[in-house]
């Protein structure tokens, strides 16, 4: 009986490790999530059949800190090459500007090309699947303002159009259907 238990235990461990190793062979993830600031206005090009593609750099910064021994670790900025296709590229052309804060989800892709000297170069890019504007929205003067806040020019202008669903109180009392 003890001998059978030992054999069963070894078999169970073997099966579990075999399944565990297979899981790693089957599963892989290529997912990038970034929140950062645009380094320059997007470069938008239109390819065959009017397909838009935009490229721009995005900066992400890890804040510096002070270690317990007093050593200061400075801020560390990483630059990422972002590539956006089709409708997202057209969105970037209209709304994304240098300094815009973005949330981006996408995947890493590395490609190679030959430079002017004939040397083979490699570049790693983030192909964005999702893009969301964050932070401040530029007003008409090129200045940034919080998302819910009106610019000073818009706040001083009176409302041009009245709400069509709100009428005169005396008028609405006579038109009641009951």
Number of helices: 4
Estimate the helix proportion, in percent.
25-40%
Poorly predicted runs are 5-12, 144-172
Describe the biggest sheet? 5 strands, mixed, barrel
Approximately what portion of the residues adopt beta-strand conformation? 35-45%
Outline = globular
Mean pLDDT: 76
Would you count the extended β strands for me? 10
In terms of quaternary structure, the protein is single chain
Q: Which CATH architecture of one domain would you pick?
A: Beta Barrel
Query: Largest beta sheet: what is the strand line-up?
Result: 1-3-6-8-7
Write up what this structure looks like.
This protein is an alpha+beta fold and 178 residues long. The chain has a domain at 29-146: OB fold (Dihydrolipoamide Acetyltransferase, E2P), CATH 2.40.50.140. It contains four helices and ten strands. The strands form three sheets. The chain has a five-stranded mixed barrel with strand order 1-3-6-8-7. A hairpin with a 5-residue loop joins strand 4 (65-66) and strand 5 (72-73). It is globular. The protein starts with a helix and ends with a helix. Mean pLDDT is 76; it is low at 5-12 and 144-172.
């Amino acid at each position: 009986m003890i001998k059978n238990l030992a054999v069963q235990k070894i078999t169970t461990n073997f099966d579990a490790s075999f399944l565990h190793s297979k899981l790693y062979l089957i599963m892989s993830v290529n997912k990038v999530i970034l929140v950062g600031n645009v380094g320059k206005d997007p470069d938008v090009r239109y390819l065959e059949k009017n397909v838009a593609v935009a490229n721009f750099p995005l900066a992400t910064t890890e804040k510096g800190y002070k270690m317990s021994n007093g050593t200061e670790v400075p801020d560390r900025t990483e630059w990422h090459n972002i590539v956006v296709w089709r409708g997202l590229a057209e969105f970037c052309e209209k709304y994304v500007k240098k300094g815009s804060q973005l949330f981006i989800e996408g995947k890493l892709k590395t490609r190679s090309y030959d430079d002017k000297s004939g040397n083979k170069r490699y570049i790693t890019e983030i192909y964005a699947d999702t893009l969301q504007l964050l932070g401040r929205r530029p007003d008409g003067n090129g200045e940034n303002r919080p998302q819910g806040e009106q610019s000073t020019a818009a706040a001083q202008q009176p409302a041009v159009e009245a709400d069509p669903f709100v009428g005169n109180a005396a008028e609405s009392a006579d038109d009641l259907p009951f």
